[in-house]
Design a protein that fits this description.
heterodimer, A: alpha+beta, SH3 type barrels, 5-stranded antiparallel β-sheet, B: alpha/beta, Rossmann fold, Helix Hairpins, 7-stranded mixed β-sheet, two-stranded antiparallel sheet, elongated
């Protein structure tokens, strides 16, 4: 499944990244790597974007971008 | 012997890099832009014994690839400027991710010192770090610091000195796993060029080439005699790797670096078990809450408005005497005024100084505004603001980070487009950034307010509050659809960046840091603006003063002058001053009178007043007698003098108006009347609007001078109503809307050019806003007239229209949305299967 399907509060482990170019590079730079554990913290007041916790810090991405991150439940 | 050393300061965003920079350099710093780009370049100096160190603060980057401008700037600096030492600031509380950049720096084999910053935060979070072990693993000195308290300053200085003296760099090797043989091959190929290895680490260059880094390719073409052969080998290696491993090299490289960073972090950081949620996370529960979040956001914006605009506005009034003093000082230094016409040097000088003080008047507002923003930035609230509003703004082709520029521009009333456009720098999405730059001037800057007030007072006196609310909020409903329209048309092809933003933990901003940044930015702003304003003021002066009066008119005014003086002299001859006061003295007496008034401004104490009188008596007893009504003759002549002064004022006003009307700008104002009449503007209004291009304040001032406010005792509103008998509230509404959509003033245009990095966008910004403004004004005026709406009805009909358009525009999907919803699974497959 992909990261955008995760509900706030869910914990998951990253499996793979399905995009390259700037988006892929940016995600990788921020620590989106296979095996990284990701927690979905909360959605924005208007649902999008979403805050994730990853490697001990918080990062916010849009659901459109979370689609490219393949994860599995922890 | 004294020598110099160039040191670069690198680090990821939010690692406290600026604090380290300030700690090391103190007040000796300089902010500019990197040549040709809008990225800020901060340089500071400190000394290490005899060594003079120039410290350059690189833009904060997560990595050193070449996808963003900041990364390219940072990497190019490291490559081309050859810093002797690099200080890498790493956030100790977030070591793993920060090491990702550290590793990339170490691979470049520049002498590096790691400043392990925010040790206190790490401790607070229950992490303990083994610094000695980290030093060992990285092979470079690691200095723990708490920069905001100044801890670790000496240790870093010493480490830099040692690194500079030592120069030996132990290469840090990342294990790239299955990629290693290919790196080896390319390195060998590169090594065939004998000089290359001395300039750049071959392994690093090989990895970069395999990563398909464009700067590395350019570097190869410059420094290698057979670049094509290497490039062919690289291309082959990339294809081979993809085939054998099923993933591309960029990903392999990034994953390997992460693995290395993770391994080091695990070995060095010990985390106390059982720690609960951090304080920031708990705060975010309220600050990013569905209901509370937006409420808090609005409260913060209200506070910003109160502090900067309301309090700052009050402060600006308090400070004004200072600028007024400068104006007076300059006018004292310039050649004396003439009877009806001043010497050119004087009028030009006064004009330029007045143009500058008009901008300086906003200085208190800017300082407070920038301080408030700096505090918000330091606190970590900015990303939350973008987070809360991104969904809304994205619908209009903007970005969550467009919020700040729009607020600075004056979302309600009372901003300034210049800092607004400046603040677009932070928006990572090129398309949204340009869209923001193009709509910020449509916000209600402070300088538009005087014109609004005049028109509202004159034509909507009963509904002033509502009319003000209308003009203050309708701009947003005009700007949002325009932003969407722009991003769907002219900006369609611009680079679109993903929204990926770190949400750093909250910090309490330090007073010193906030003040420093505020003053720094204000200074930068002043330097840019004052020079431009001064230059532009000269051009505008020419446009509104030349070609000047015709000879017949000049002769007419000269005759009037002579008549006034003759009348005065006739009276003089009846008094004891016959022969004492000559024709040449008349102007002198008038200026003497003005000087006395000037000297007594604000004087309430009788004793002080007496001293001033005595001083003037001593300076010229004869003039003083007339001006201060001493004796019967003095009183008589003073009465006559008043008449001359009044005639002089009248003549000067007439001349100014006539010269203005006949000027290049006036001619233009008349020339466009056939078009603007549909918007309800006559040539007088056209001139006022044209003159506003230099600075918006001019619109009100020009109306004032056209309707001749000085002397008559009437306000601009009253004289305007008198002079424009046929004017209705509908005219006023069209004029207000035109002003709202008015093209950016010249200083803002310069800022647009600067931030968009192209003259084309500046011209576009001026052009489309003029046309849009004219279109809206014609729509409201001609449409309103046709439907025979009153000004008030037209106002709310237009409001409803704007809101409707905004909603419709919001519903049109953006290109990205359309793409991702349609392609979805397919695109994933495309990447995966390629």
């Amino acid at each position: 499944m992909t990261l955008d399907e995760m509900k706030p509060g869910a914990r998951c482990v990253m499996v793979d990244l399905h995009t390259d170019g700037p988006l892929g590079q940016r995600l990788m730079d921020l620590g989106f790597c296979p095996g990284a554990s990701i927690e979905v913290v909360r959605n924005a007041p208007l649902v999008d974007p979403v805050v994730l916790q990853l490697d001990g810090y918080h990062v916010s991405i849009r659901h459109d971008e979370a689609k490219y991150v393949e994860v599995k439940h922890q | 012997m004294s020598s110099s050393l160039l040191v670069a300061l690198a680090g990821q965003p939010n690692c406290g890099k600026s604090t380290v920079f300030n700690m090391l350099t103190g007040a000796r710093q300089h902010v500019a832009n990197y040549p040709g780009v809008t990225v800020e370049k901060k340089t500071g100096f400190f000394s290490l014994g005899d060594l003079r160190v120039e410290l350059v603060d690189l833009p904060g980057t997560y990595s050193l690839t070449s996808y963003s401008l900041e990364e390219r700037v940072a990497r190019d600096f490291l490559l081309n400027d050859n810093p002797g030492v690099v200080i890498d600031v790493a956030d100790a509380s977030n070591l793993k991710r920060n090491l990702y950049l550290t590793i990339q720096l170490l691979e470049m084999e520049v002498p590096t010192v790691v400043a392990l910053n925010m040790m206190d935060v790490a401790t607070r979070r229950g992490q303990s770090l083994d610094v000695a072990r980290l030093e060992e693993l990285l092979g470079v000195p690691v200095v723990p610091t708490v920069a905001k308290k100044g801890e670790g300053k000496e240790a870093i200085r010493m480490a830099v000195e040692n690194a500079h003296a030592d120069k030996r760099v132990a290469p840090f090797v990342v294990d790239y796993g299955p990629l290693e043989p290919r790196i080896e091959d390319i390195s060998i190929l590169l090594g065939k060029e004998p000089t290359l290895g001395a300039q750049y680490p071959l392994r690093w260059l090989a990895v970069k080439l395999l990563e398909k880094d464009q700067e590395a390719e350019a570097l190869l073409r410059r420094a290698h005699s057979e670049p094509q052969a290497v490039m062919d080998a690289v291309t082959k290696a990339r294809a081979g790797f993809l085939e054998s491993e099923g993933r591309d090299i960029e990903r392999q490289v990034a994953y390997a670096r992460h693995t290395a960073a993770g391994r080091i972090a695990r070995e060095v950081v010990a985390v106390e078990e059982g720690r609960g949620r951090s304080l920031s996370d708990r705060a975010d529960r309220f600050i990013c809450h569905r209901v509370l979040g937006p409420v808090i956001l609005i409260l913060i914006l209200l506070a910003l408005y109160q502090v900067s605009i309301v309090f700052g506005g009050w402060l600006a009034v308090e400070v004004w005497p200072l600028w007024g003093g400068i104006e007076n000082l300059v006018s004292d230094l310039l050649p004396e005024a003439g009877f009806i016409e001043d010497p050119l040097v004087r009028s030009l000088g006064e004009w330029v100084v007045k143009s500058m003080t008009a901008i300086l008047n906003y200085l208190p507002i800017f300082i407070l505004l920038f301080a408030f923003i700096a505090a918000l930035e330091d606190s970590g609230y900015m990303p939350r603001m973008a987070f809360i509003l991104d969904r809304l703004f994205r619908r209009f082709g903007l970005h969550g980070q467009s919020t700040l520029p729009m607020i600075l521009g004056g979302v309600y009333v009372g901003g300034c487009a210049i800092p607004g456009v400046m603040a677009t720098k932070a928006i990572p999405d090129e398309r949204a950034r340009l869209a923001t730059i193009l709509i910020v001037p449509m916000m209600n800057c402070l300088a538009k307010v005087p014109l609004y007030l005049i028109l509202i007072d004159a034509y909507f006196p009963q509904a002033g509050g509502l009319a003000m609310f209308f003009i203050a909020t309708v701009t947003l409903f005009m700007a949002l659809p325009v932003a969407k329209a722009l991003s769907m048309t002219v900006l369609r092809k611009k680079e679109h960046a993903p929204f990926i933003m770190e949400m750093p933990p909250y910090h309490v901003p330090t007073m010193g840091g906030v003040m420093r940044r505020s003053i720094e930015r204000t200074w930068l702003f002043l330097k840019k603006i004052i020079t431009v304003v001064a230059a532009v003021a000269v051009v505008v002066f020419v446009l509104i003063n030349f070609p000047g009066l015709s000879e017949t008119r000049a002769a007419h005014f000269a005759a009037e002058e002579k008549a006034a003086i003759d009348a005065f002299m006739a009276e003089v001859d009846k008094t004891e001053y016959k022969g004492v006061i000559t024709r040449d003295d008349v102007l002198g007496i008038i200026l003497f009178d003005e000087a006395l008034k000037q000297a007594k401004v604000g004087v309430t104490d009788q004793a002080v007043s007496d001293t001033i009188n005595a001083r003037f008596d001593a300076a010229n007893p004869v003039y003083s007698a007339v001006v201060r009504r001493q004796g019967d003759d003095g009183r008589t002549l003073n009465r006559e003098l008043r008449k001359v002064i009044s005639t002089r004022k009248q003549l000067r006003r007439e001349i100014r108006t006539e010269r203005f009307e006949g000027s290049f700008l006036g001619v233009l104002g008349r020339a466009i009347e056939p078009v603007t009449q549909y918007a309800g503007f006559n040539w007088r209004i056209n001139i006022a609007l044209l003159s506003a291009f230099a600075a918006k304040e001019n619109s009100a001032a020009t109306l004032g001078s056209i309707y001749g406010i000085d002397g008559s005792g009437l306000s601009v509103e009253e004289s305007m109503k008198q002079a424009e008998a046929g004017f209705t509230p509908l005219h006023a509404l069209a004029l207000m809307l035109f002003m709202a959509l008015y093209p950016p003033c010249i200083p803002t245009s310069i800022m647009v050019r600067h931030q968009a990095n192209s003259t084309k966008w500046m011209l576009f910004s001026i052009g489309y806003q003029s046309l849009l403004g004219l279109f809206v004004a014609v729509l409201v005026f001609s449409g309103g007239s046709m439907l025979s709406l009153s000004g008030f009805q037209a106002m709310w009909a237009f409001y409803a229209l704007c809101v409707a358009v905004t909603v419709i525009m919001a519903l049109i999907p953006t290109r990205e949305e359309a793409r991702t919803t349609v392609v979805d699974g397919k695109e994933i497959c495309k990447n995966k299967c390629s």
